[in-house]
Amino acid sequence: MTGLLASTVRTSVMLALRVVTQAASLVLLAQLLGPESYANVAALASLALVMGVLPGLGSGYVVLAGAHDPGHAAEAWRYAWPIAMGLGAVGTVIYCAAAPVITGSSASLFVVACLGASELLCTPLVLLCSFILQSRDRVPLSQFAQWLPLALRLIGTALAFSVAPPNRLAAFACLQITASVLGLAANITLVSRYVRLSWKPRMPSRAELATGSTYAAMQVVAANPAELDKVLAIHALGAGPAGVYAAGSRVLTAAVTPAVALLLSIQPRLFRQAAIGSRAPKYFHIAGLSAACGGVAMVGMALLSPAVAWMLGPRFDDVRRAIIWLAPVAPFLALRLGAGTVLLATGSAMQRLTYELLGTVALGVAIAVLAPRHGIPGMAVALLFAEAIMAATGWLMVRRAASSLAPLRRRGP
């Protein structure tokens, strides 16, 4: 328990640094572009994040599932990196054609291509590096690996202020892809200190493809509730209010960082316990801790909303109201993430896919019904509705999974 607490604290520190970086990026980007252009970039980035899950083909979770074998990560890397690069290249082309239509963005093809390549070519390999470090019980370092490209992107956003306003969006996009490439190179160098990476490609086994594809499908569906709202916001609210809502939604994501830190610290242990047939952990302790972290996040959002509005500037005055409306979502979001972590570790990825697909459909319907009539509050209520459904359904599924492991607990020493 002491080791878990220490790991959670170190991971929380790294994630806090990540949150500060994301907050600084949000403030700088909002001031750089203004609400309408920011809404376009947020929608494009959200779609890229969802599509960026696919190129890795779930290889990160394949690495975690084999965490009990010290040589597994290096062997998985041999098939994962060529698949990620190949699918990422194809995905970037598809993204460039589809993103303007789906998001309604008026950004140039150059901007779209840079943002797409950052998320579909570079980020999947960065995440794979992070998973490899997690599998070696280097959870805080794995978060450093994810933070480093964000820090470089923050520097790129700051440098974009030196460009004349008409060209700032293009300069921002160019600097983002440059930062992503540098971040990926640094990650590969870092991971090579702990795992001997071989660049000799190999074909994945049937089991690796089947397991990874299941996790990839689950990740795509899991990313939708967190990102779909920002894509739909432009269509439901218009560019200006959508930019304000997107800023508030990013604050919500940052606020649940302590819950994410806890779950990341627990995740490698859960995977190892499942792999060796260990007795089932007390999963509902995770629910209690997730809910507590979510409650703290809700209060923190309400208290800090005036400061966030002040930092973003007068063009984002309504963001304070958006954050207040979004704050009650935090406990349900934390619970949903907790249930998903447990289901993944117990080999129930398809169950997680089911309840998050249900939540995605619920979110889309609720936004269509509430947002055009009620604006930003309607968007927030729609998100609350979807997260509550997913949290309740997810933990019911965990209860069923834990019950199936009850005989194993009774046979314990």
- Could you spell the SSE succession in H and E letters? HHHHHHHHHHHHHH
Query: How many domains is the backbone divided into?
Result: 1
Strand content: under 5%
Number of strands: 0
Cα(first) to Cα(last) distance is 19 Å
The biggest beta sheet reads:
none
In the predicted model, the low-confidence regions spanning at least 5 consecutive residues are 406-413
Shape: globular
Estimate the helix proportion, in percent.
over 70%
Query: Which structural class do the helices and strands define?
Result: mainly alpha
- Tell me which oligomeric state these chains represent: single chain
Mean pLDDT: 83
- Number of separate helices: 14
Computed CA radius of gyration, to the nearest angstrom: 21 Å
